Amino acid sequence: MSDRVFRIGLLGRGTVGAAFAELLPARAVHIEAITGMRPEIIGVLRRSEGDFEAILEASDLVVEVMGGIEPARDYVLRAMLAGKHVVTANKQLLSQHGEELWACARDNGVQLRFEAAVAGVVPVIRVLGESLAAASLDRIHGIVNGTTNFILSEMARTGCSYEDALADAQRLGYAEADPTEDVNGKDAAAKMAIIARLAFDTPVHLDQVVYEGIEHITADDMEYARELGLGLKLLGTAERVDGGLSVRVHPAFLYGSHPLASVGGPFNAVTIESEAITEITLSGPGAGGPQTASAVLGDVISAMIPPASTPEATHALEIIQDVESAFYLHMEVADRPGVLAQVAQILGLQGASVKSVVQKGLGEKARLVMVVHPMLESRFFAAVDLIAGLDFMRSRPRAIRVIEEEFIS
Ligand SMILES: NC(=O)c1ccc[n+]([C@@H]2O[C@H](COP(=O)([O-])OP(=O)(O)OC[C@H]3O[C@@H](n4cnc5c(N)ncnc54)[C@H](OP(=O)(O)O)[C@@H]3O)[C@@H](O)[C@H]2O)c1
Questions:
Q1: pLDDT at 314 over 80
Q2: Which of 34, 89, 118, 264 is the most exposed place for a label (fewest CB within 10 A)?
Q3: Quick one: which atom of ligand 1 is closest to the CA of 295?
Q4: Strands 230-241 and 244-255
């Protein structure tokens, strides 16, 4: 264990702060292996707890997860003026005072990191600021508010009203007790301002983002959209227009083939377009304590010493080779009675459970196609070997794995 401690001052211990305080000790060994330093929270500030001056004095880095403009702005500025790195999840602060804060970071040679301020754990900021730093981007579309995406997904799925979907979102914890800034588009507008600033390298203030919410959407809109093969999303857009930049948020229909059309439930996603890279889509959970805390901690690690090489392994996990998979099984068979029964018997003996069967074609073109529920791959392939030896098989069966997971509710 290193005797070098990296001291973190935690401003705010609510949903994100509490999850961060829980995650940090759980990942401390891993972080020490990467950075050579052991991260520790040396002080917590809440309304009822802690002293900012004392925390600042004792910290190498300050994590700001209080939210709001003041005193968050004052604390972040003072931390950077004192030469401390800052990690924040505060989109309202950055979308209104970003230029002042980024200038302060540059002037004081410290890092101001903010991955969690946009799209939660989806690494949009890193990708825009690092991976795509060399690309000249044309347009960004984003579903950057999970609450509204959940509401619209529920309306589309169940045909319910906006009010019922909002009540569901609140019951399931996807919407705050006061959801105003989510449903009126302001939260998404703040995130698009930050995205646009990074993507197009030009100052963008929240006041310059035109935004509209989803409060006026009706069940009828969703019904007609479905018939037309369209899905409705609260879409953020930042794009070059006539030599300038347009940044806006409004409800928009998407055709099913658009990469953002299938992003449902509380998920966030961002599509980045440019001539050189064509299109990249990133998606994942856009909020939640543990998810956001993971993005915050990722920023903390980046602000610590970057790795000189691949760190020493800290685990010795067993490498598993025989796993469970679902399979698609395609067999070209002779067209005669009893074929299906024999195949089913062999699969059954290996413990396979058949999810669906389709028989197609006649005579020389007869085919049997099955989807088999997840089972150990070794047992499945043992069954395939036996099936391949049956005298009615016209060629070796083809097997392809099926991913059954559904990430989006
Ligand atoms: N929640 C999410 O899923 C999520 C996702 C992405 C980004 N964010 C961002 O992360 C930040 C924190 O969100 P949250 O949901 O964790 O908020 P929260 O649950 O309301 O927690 C805020 C914390 O900050 C403290 N605090 C607030 N004002 C303070 C003040 N003036 N002085 C001292 N302490 C103060 C509160 O103290 P008390 O405990 O004493 O009340 C509380 O511990 C916000 O900027 C938010 O936009 C949140």
A1: no
A2: 34
A3: 6
A4: antiparallel
Give the pLDDT score at 2. Answer: 54
What six digits make up the tokens of 321? 């080779």
> Environment class of residue 400 by beta-carbon count within 10 Å: exposed (0-12), middle (13-18) or buried (19+)?
exposed
Q: Whose C-alpha lies nearest to ligand 1, atom 17?
A: 14
Paired residues of 325 in beta bridges? 375
Annotate 248-306 with DSSP letters as a single string.
EEEEEEEETTSTTTT--TTEEEEEEEETTTEEEEEEEE---HHHHHHHHHHHHHHHSPP
Neighbours of 334 (CB within 10 A): 13
**Beta sheet of 354-360, edge-to-edge order:** 354-360, 367-376, 324-332, 398-402
- Tell me, using a 6 A CB cutoff, whether residue 66 lines ligand 1: yes
For residues 210, 214, 219 and 221, what is the CA-based torsion angle, rounded to 10 degrees? 10
Is 139 in contact with 240 (CB distance < 8 Å)?
Answer: yes
- For residues 18 and 369, the model is more confident at 18
Q: CB–CB of 56/39 below 8 Å? A: no
Ligand 1 midpoint to CA 17 (Å): 7
pLDDT band at 306 (very low <50, low <70, confident <90, very high): low
Question: Is residue 79 classed as helix, strand or coil in its secondary structure?
Answer: helix
State if residue 14 touches ligand 1 by the CB under 6 angstroms criterion.
yes
Peptide linkage before 71 cis (omega within 30 of 0): yes
- Segment 263-290 shows an average pLDDT of 93
> How remote is the CA of residue 394 from the centroid of ligand 1, in Å?
65
Q: What are phi and psi of 246, to 5 degrees?
A: -110, 130
Q: Tokens standing for 37?
A: 């330093």
Q: How confident is the model at residue 409 (pLDDT cuts 50, 70, 90)?
A: very low
Given the structure tokens 């449903």, which residue do they identify?
Answer: 183
Ligand 1 centroid – CA 329 distance (Å): 52
Active site (catalytic) residues: 191
15 lines ligand 1 (CB under 6 A): yes
Per-residue pLDDT at 307 exceeds 70: no
Q: What is the pTM of this model?
A: 0.86
Q: Which two tokens stand for residue 205?
A: 């203030």
pLDDT the model gives residue 242: 85
Q: Whose CA is nearest to atom 9 of ligand 1?
A: 89
Q: Tell me the pLDDT tens digit for each residue of 247-258.
A: 999 998 888 888
How is residue 342 annotated by DSSP?
H
